[in-house]
Design a protein that fits this description.
This is DUF2225 domain-containing protein. Pfam families: DUF2225. With 227 residues, this protein is mostly helical. The chain has a domain of 115 residues. The protein has a two-stranded antiparallel sheet. A hairpin with a 6-residue loop joins strand 1 and strand 2. The chain starts with a strand and ends with a helix.
Length: 227
């Protein structure tokens, strides 16, 4: 196994069995670049590959920072709709992009079975889009960007902020940038302009600068499309 990875024992909250999960050592988290939709690129290995933990025994999967937070009703739903049909397989050890996508899609299925909040679905869908970007599968990337966009839009209108660690204006920025990336430029411009015009958003100068840059890019792209 890669020297930047290590295995850790945890308890699965669904089947109450001890499992091993693979984590990335801190020294393996050297950031190389960031995309305008917050996707992080790393120098040594893709940390995102290991962000979902999967129980090989029952099929429960979740982002590692959410793995233990389950209600009793969630456990019952997962046992009934996933574990009954689960074919035992391991996700421990090194992952390639396809194995990472499989893990994330399993986490997405678990969220849907649990009737999770739109913000949780959006976070996972956006990361699946990033994985397809890593794979250079533009069609699938756009498909999951759209899924993430719809869920973030729903969360923005229905949920209270912060959404996990996401504040209102960062959420607005992500919505605006996703609109731009899927080609809905009018909507993108509207959302970016709301951020730029907001006095409250100015408490985050870096976000304002990013929004201005992407606002101008969206306007340029729209002008080019209409030329």
């Amino acid at each position: 196994m890669n020297d930047l990875l290590y295995n850790k024992k945890v308890m699965c909250p669904v089947c109450n069995r001890e499992i091993q999960v693979t984590k990335v050592k801190t020294k393996g988290c050297k950031v190389k670049a960031r995309d305008t939709d917050m996707c992080v690129h790393y120098e040594d290995l893709n940390v995102l590959f290991y962000d979902v933990w999967v129980c090989e025994n029952c099929g429960y999967a979740a982002l590692q920072d959410k793995f233990e937070g389950l209600f009793t009703r969630d456990i019952a739903a997962i046992k009934d709709k996933i574990s009954k049909n689960w074919v035992k397989r391991s996700f421990t050890g090194e992952r390639d992009v396809d194995k990472a996508i499989e893990a994330f899609k399993l986490a997405l299925l678990n969220l849907k079975v649990r009737n999770a909040k739109s913000s949780e679905l959006a976070k996972v869908c956006l990361r699946i889009a990033w994985l397809y970007r890593d794979k250079e599968d533009t069609k699938k990337e756009t498909e999951f960007l759209n899924f993430a966009l719809n869920s973030y839009n729903d969360a923005y209108s229905k949920e209270r902020f912060p959404l996990d660690k996401l504040d209102e204006f960062t959420c607005m920025y992500i919505i605006a940038e996703l609109f731009r990336r899927v080609g809905k430029l009018d909507e993108s411009i509207q959302w970016f302009s709301r951020i730029v015009a907001s006095p409250q958003a100015r408490s985050n100068p870096k976000l304002i600068d990013m929004a201005r840059d992407q606002y101008q890019l969206a306007k340029d792209q729209l002008a080019e499309a209409n030329a």
